[in-house]
Amino acid sequence: MKNNLKTIFAFFCIIILNNCGYAPLLDSKKINFYINDLNVSGDRQLVNLLTNKLEKFKNFNENAKEYNLDISNNYEKVMVNKDSSGNPKNYNVVITTNVNIILKNQTKIEKIFVRKKSFEAQDRKIKEKEMEKKFKKDLAELIGEDIVFFLMSQ
Question: Do 143 and 50 meet the contact criterion of CB atoms below 8 Å apart?
Fold first, then answer.
């Protein structure tokens, strides 16, 4: 009897979730722009991550808005506080990205995106570096998505 109830419950959950109306935000049908020229400068790892994120929007589309992007980014790891012996206790990782958007009619739009993440200092510096690298990658992904959503809303 319990197995039958679990099966029926699972079946209804699948039906309900399947028909909930979910649609991906970056659906290719909703993309109303393309990037003609992309210049990214700053931290090398961030340049690579942002370029990879935005390269897929370089496909020419006749009916879409054309953007030329000039992106500069800055990466900082700031010590927030120290323990009683003077060793670092917490850090903030901050990525600031300045995006200059040049439209077809030479109009310029400037937008600044800032993302930050806090984390505790680790006893093992290798582990701390790995955490910093992961946070850097995650924040770059978020900034890439912010840029795409900003361009979609223009």
Answer: yes
Q: Of 149, 45, 140, 54, whose CA–CA distance to 97 is shortest?
A: 140
pLDDT in tens, the chain (154 residues): 667 778 888 877 777 766 665 555 555 556 788 899 999 999 999 999 999 999 988 887 778 889 999 999 999 999 999 888 888 899 999 999 999 999 888 889 999 999 999 999 888 989 999 999 999 999 999 999 999 999 988 7
Helix (H, G, I), strand (E, B) or coil at 10: helix
Q: State the Cα torsion 53-63-72-142 to the nearest 10°.
A: -40
User: What span, in angstroms and rounded, lies between the C-alpha atoms of 11 and 100?
Assistant: 50
Rg (C-alpha) for the chain, rounded Å, is: 22
